[in-house]
Structure formats: C-alpha cells, structure tokens
Amino acid sequence: MRAQRTIKNEISFEGIGLHTGKLASVTLKPASRDTGVIFVRTDKPVVIKAYVGSVIDTAFATTIGHNGIKIRTIEHLMAALAGLGIDNIYIEVSGPEIPILDGSSTELISIILRAGIAKQGKKRPYLRIKRPFVFEDGHSKIVAFPYNGSRITYRISFNHHGIGEQKISLDINEESFAREIAPARTFGFLKDIEYLRTNGLAKGGSLENAIILGENGILNSTGLRFQDEFVRHKVLDSIGDFALLGFPIYGHIIASRSGHSSNVKFLKKLLASPDSWDITLEAEEKISRIPALQINL
Q1: For helices 229-242 and 75-84, what crossing angle results, to 10°?
Q2: Contact 16/95 with Cβ under 8 angstroms?
Q3: Best CA proximity match to 263, nearest among 281, 229, 239
Q4: How far apart are CA 191 and CA 198, in angstroms?
C-alpha cells in the first residue's frame, strides 16, 4: 500500500462557522509519521485527536471535544484530508468551529494542495473488511462488504420535490473525490432555519455556503453543481465521518439514509466486531489489532 503522507508547508485560512457564525482562523501544519490528525484549540488551549472516541455530538454536524472544549463541523475538512490521503497533520483553530467556506470541500482541497503533499517513509495501514457487517439504526442502514478497493454506495430519500430519491455508487480515490464529491455543498430547508437558529444552530448559514430549498425549489441563483448534488454531499460527509476510524477502509460501504449520528454509531459497532475486519499493511500481511481501536460503547 501507499506511504503515509503529511503536508509540506504550513498554511492558514479563515472564515465563519456554519452553526456558531463565529470567525475562526485555521492553520494546517505538517506532522511526523504515525501522528494522525490532531486538532488544537489555540484559544483555550486543548488538543483533540480526530478519532471516533472523541466525538461528543452529531446534531447537524460532527463535533469532537475534550474536557468540555468543542470543535464543531470537522467533517468537510476531515473529508478533504481523507480524500487526498493526508494521514498526519496538526490543525490549529482559533475558535469553536471549523469555517464552512463555500459549504463543500473544494476550497479545502485547494488549500491543502497549495501547502503541498509530502510522502513519509512508512506504509499506511488500512482497515480491510473481511466479511459482511450490517448496522441498522432506525431508518438508517449501513453495510460493509469485502471489496478490492474503497467504494461507497449511498442512497437518500427526502419528501421534497427538489430532492426525492437519489443514489450514487463510485470507487473513492483522490481523483474521484476531488472531481465527483468535493464540490458538493451542504444543504438545508428554509422551513427549518428558524428552528435551527432558535436552538443556536445555522447562525452562519447563507446562500453563499449552503443550498437552501424552499417550497418551490432551490433558492440559490447559481443552481446546482450536480443534478444529484445532495446525495454527493452525503457521501462527502460520510467520508469525513469514516475518517474518524483512524485508517482508510478497504471495502464497499453501502449506506441508506444515514447521517452523522448513524455514521459514528456504525464505526463504533464495526470496531467492536473484530471478526469483520483486520488491520493490514499489504494484502497478504496483517498486523496485530491496535489497542487504540478498543473503545467503550
């Protein structure tokens, strides 16, 4: 398999958070091999490893935290890192939420590519699905199958004429992620905005960083980037959430109507079912189960 990767140079960006509406600056810094993805709140400070065990909230975004300190809406940045194969990096953020930028991962990919990608002198382990694993959570269902590569099939269904039922299936690699998934923006419904803001959410949301659907259709004058942009964004979110596993997944993930909560529950249940997977460096070479994977459910 491939070598581990980090970025070549430090790089910064800033913007407002989708839910908090607060301005924050983010600095990405290179990290040594086997570091993983590490978030640092520079205004507190606190250090939080990007890992499924660090997730403390999944309401309308994925939030990690430690000792009461949160970093919200990490999924688009996590997806960009996973999509480009960045394994080791420090992410310093000056506030409680990662900037939403344009609501997709396109700008994040551009930022990472400007920083440059550096190969590191150690192979990247991956989690290989050995046998089918099924997870159901209410109306949501996620199934993992053995597969020679990384593939996602995703289905959504919304009772809105602007969305309806959408489905996509594709192999995930750097090229397909950057071209087919990264540009897809987050979306929401006009009827829900008042409720969200009353509950302290979507304070930074606008037509500049989200697709908004009203009763008569899409409110954005620029229209859609893809006819099925909604399901593509769900794939983006899932890639970001699944990156919290700590390893790339070698398998075929089939998801129906899942969201952040179901994605995180799926990861925890999968990790608690070691007969369904192994950690592998090469197709024929296995390494022992890593202690950090053992979490309390």
Answers
A1: 80
A2: no
A3: 239
A4: 13
Q: What are phi and psi of 105, to 5 degrees?
A: -110, 5
CA distance 218 to 207: 10
What are the tens digits of pLDDT across the range 184-242? Answer: 999 999 988 878 888 888 899 999 999 999 999 999 999 999 999 999 999 999 999 99
SS3 state of residue 94 = coil
Cβ contact 236:181 at 8 Å = yes
Q: In the annotation, is 260 catalytic? A: yes
Measured CA to CA, the distance from residue 162 to residue 220 in angstroms comes to 12
The two structure tokens encoding residue 87: 């394994």
Burial 148-173 (b: 16+ CB within 10 A, else e): eebbbbbbbebeeebbeebebebebe
Rounded CA separation 276/70 (Å): 32
| pLDDT tens readout for residues 22-64 | 999 999 999 999 999 999 999 998 999 999 999 999 999 999 9
Question: Please, what are the domains in the chain?
Answer: 3-123 (3.30.230.20), 126-293 (3.30.1700.10)
